[in-house]
Design brief:
Distance between the termini: 45 Å
Largest sheet: 3 strands, mixed
Number of domains: 1
CATH topology: Four Helix Bundle (Hemerythrin (Met), subunit A)
Radius of gyration: 17 Å
Strand order of the largest sheet: 1-2-3
Oligomer: single chain
Number of helices: 5
Structural class: mainly alpha
Helix content: 55-70%
Length: 163
C-alpha cells in the first residue's frame, strides 16, 4: 500500500463508525434476530461477529506492531457465534464494536511507514506462504465491514418486503 492507500483505508475504517450503527438500526427491531435462511446470520449475529472480528484483528494488529514476526492464531467465527452470540444485545454489540474500532483506528493512525509493513505469520496463511501485516489487517477490516454492511442492507430490504 502506498501512503495514500493507507489514508484511504483509515478513512473508510473511520466512516464505518457511522455506517454500521445506522445500517444495523435501520432494520425493524422485530427483524433484527431473524435469519434470512437457516445458514445465514441475522443482523444481530452480524453485529456481534463484527465486534468479535474487530477484537481479534485489534489483538493481531498490536502483536504485529510490538513483536518480531509474531504467530497469529486463527479463530473459529462460527464457534464464537454459537457460544457468545447471544451474550449481548444488538445495542451492546454495537457499543463494543464502536469502542474497539475507535481503539484500532488510534493504532492505525499512530503507525509510521515501517510499522505498516511489519510481518507476522498467520496460522491459516502459513499454508499458502502468506504473511499478515498492519496493511493487510486494514484492508481486511475495510472489506469485511463493507461485506457485512451489504448483508445487513439486504436483510433490511427483505424485512421491508415482508412488512
Amino acid at each position: 500500500m502506498t501512503p495514500a492507500e493507507r489514508a484511504i483505508a483509515v478513512t473508510a475504517l473511520r466512516e464505518a463508525l457511522a455506517v454500521v450503527p445506522t445500517t444495523a438500526r435501520a432494520l425493524p427491531m422485530e427483524h433484527a434476530d431473524l435469519s434470512p435462511t437457516a445458514d445465514e446470520w441475522s443482523a444481530h449475529d452480524v453485529v456481534v461477529h463484527l465486534a468479535d472480528a474487530e477484537q481479534v484483528y485489534g489483538v493481531r494488529l498490536r502483536m504485529l506492531v510490538t513483536q518480531e514476526r509474531p504467530f497469529l492464531t486463527a479463530f473459529d467465527q462460527d464457534a464464537w457465534s454459537r457460544r457468545f452470540g447471544r451474550l449481548e444485545s444488538l445495542d451492546e454489540a454495537l457499543t463494543r464494536w464502536t469502542v474497539l474500532r475507535r481503539a484500532n483506528l488510534a493504532v492505525f493512525e499512530s503507525l509510521d511507514g515501517e510499522e505498516w509493513t511489519r510481518p507476522g505469520d498467520h496460522e491459516e496463511g502459513m499454508k499458502v506462504g502468506r504473511v499478515e501485516t498492519p496493511e493487510s489487517i486494514a484492508d481486511v477490516l475495510v472489506r469485511h465491514t463493507r461485506q457485512h454492511v451489504e448483508q445487513m442492507h439486504g436483510a433490511a430490504h427483505r424485512a421491508d418486503l415482508e412488512a
